[in-house]
Amino acid sequence: MSTHPADKNRRICVWCPDWPVTTARVDAGSDAGFDGDAPIAVVTANRVLACSHAAREHGVRRGMRRREAQGCCPQLVVLPRDEAAEARIFEPVVAALEAIAPGVEITRPGLAAIGVRGPTRYFGGETGVLHALSKGLAEVPAVTRTGRTLPSGAGADVLIGIADGAFAAEQAARRGLVVEPGGSPAFLRDLPVSVLDPSGVAPLIDLLRRLGVRTLGAFAALPARDVLARFGPDGLWAHRQAGGVDEQPVSGRRPPVEFTVTLDLEPAVDRVDTVAFSARGVAEQFITDLAEHGLACTCFELQATSENGEQTVRRWRHAGVLSTVDVLDRVRWQLEGWLASPTANRPTGGVSRLTLAPIEVVPTGTHQQALWGGSGAEDERAGRALARVQTLLGHGSVLTPVLDGGRDPGARTRLVPWGDEPTPLRSPEQPWPGQLPAPAPSVLLDPPRPAQLLDAARRPVRVTDRGAMSAPPALFGMGGSSGDPNAVTAVTSWAGPWPVDERWWSAESARRVVRCQIVDVRGRAYLVTGTMGTGATADEPPRWQVDAVYD
User: Fold this and answer.
1) How far apart are CA 397 and CA 386, in angstroms?
2) Strand, coil or helix: what is 151?
3) Could you give the CA distance from residue 450 to residue 462 in angstroms, rounded to a whole number?
4) How do residues 337-354 score in pLDDT, each as one tens digit?
5) Are 290 and 358 in contact (CB under 8 A)?
6) Element counts in the chain: helices (H) and strands (E)
């Protein structure tokens, strides 16, 4: 059998369409409350990440907002994304691939690849490999979150493609094609530029369309130097993919053995979150050791060993360069799939050893530097220090703020543990009627402190049911009883009131208040909130509180 020069970059890619939807359907099982043919959409950050074929027939598309998708299909079943379940249910697919050829590279759950050299020699050609893969993948079971194993064929649809290079192989798998050796540029030529980013939200794709560049062939025909000057490194990467050039032309390089790091767990641990937390230190060491030698990792091998000798070995590839958080995410995904796998593959004991070995590296100069210049070493050192504090005091001991959507300053700020994904629960970009105008206060009081607001005659300022104030505020104080002359200072300026009537439909959570901004004689500003309808009688003083301070 002749060997084509491109065989070293030739890949067999396995793609499971709509994998988040498949995962949600399999993981829900028979208790889901909907049948398998129901239109389903998996939503993250209030946008459709993936949808089923039935949902697409109703006009639902990836990237749509949730309400827009439900408007297209009122009977749409909306499910949240579960990345751990995606990795767990994809584990049997990877195991089936490993039975054909070792060294499976996982781009993400639902997409994996193997090289063709070894399998084609063993099975007598690419056709033999395809038959072996089809047979092996047809017998793959699916495992629900409860550990129940579904029969073969109850899991996912699988498409297989072969081409030169990772990107061309993925596109071939999405179409179920085998591209002849050396034919990747011709195969990619007529594909739309949108395949460079299936989500369709990349600014590069929109810019290319507005410039009249609509196919990969037209994009690949542009000079590489001009593409780099106009679109930057991201554009040059996309240009290489469009031309059928392998994304890692020198990917065969293997770093020295000393970059491999190992974590021994004594005693063995059978909880994924505990192992991942313990692995934070070695993940930091893994990334730092490479960085100190001017390298960044794009693909690494993770080997986990149980106390009874069972092993799981996977290769994880990243589109950019791997960070500590990226490595820890993949540790969680692989262990989640291994520890929840069917009985035949599940380890009989806890995890006793983890080994991280870099497979492919690139010079650190090829990735973007810090936003304000420099190498970002200071940020890296700060991150390692915070990680050490977490290791000593617990995962929730170091918190970072995340900007959320909401009307109150307190609702717009949420604290998440250091290293977790800072994803807002509510989009801050959405309109929030009644939201406090800029500038935002610098100090939030938790809990809010009681306050008193008096008029020029030292009478309490009251708020009517319609949100009007009984008199302009002249005196202000934090704490103390109403009218206490020693607890108030003069008000030099004020703004408001701004009424806020929230959740009026719920008696338990309804809130009817007015907001005011008060500046005292010391020049300090406060955000003061008063409850509507309080202070109508002498027995019921008005309720004012200080929510925040402007320093």
Assistant:
1) 9
2) coil
3) 15
4) 788 766 667 888 889 999
5) yes
6) 15, 21
